[in-house]
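Please go through the protein record below and explain what the tokens say about the fold. Record follows.
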Amino acid sequence: MNHRQTFEYLQQFLTAERLQKIDHFAPESSDYVLPVIEDVFQFRNAAAIVRSVEACGFHKIVAMESQNEFNPNLRVTKGAETWVEVERLPHHIDSLKQIKKRGYKIVAVSPEKNATLLPDFEISEPIALVFGTEAEGVTEEILNFADETLAIPMYGFTRSFNVSVAAAICVYELKQKLLASKIDYKLSDEKLWEMKVRWAVNSLQSGEQILAKYLKENS
């Protein structure tokens, strides 16, 4: 599929307002930080993570599922699910090995294993940021596999943040670090047009059918 040509076809079905929003926000999108969520079971947490990730310009999440389906509450996402791609993988170390082969450094969010505090963390390469389950945190197997651990400084008696709050803090702070750096953290042209096609399809009530018809006629 030629994603640029496909988007240029799909844009005729978009409202002027929606097209303007896509063209405005797409250039800042990035997958340099890839949030990876371990088997989250509370749908409000799933939704809050999606919303925070999108607000920071990161438009993909990996949900590692085993007992629970990553199912965001649409009242909480406020439409962010339209823009964020959720890749569902088994809740297994092999999924992280697959992500690592894509060029990501595996960073587990946990105070264990001599964790680097978030203010001191230096981002210099794409990272997969792993958040643990609500009850147990990051699993031991993943902690042992991770290239590094990252911790959020705590100043009270409470020793951990809710997973959705931790995700929001981390993705926001990491976005600030990227903005202040000279790193080319934005999407490649190919990924950018692919994402814009997905956004266009998700914006249309019959988007999947329109796309399928176009691809069939232009195959």
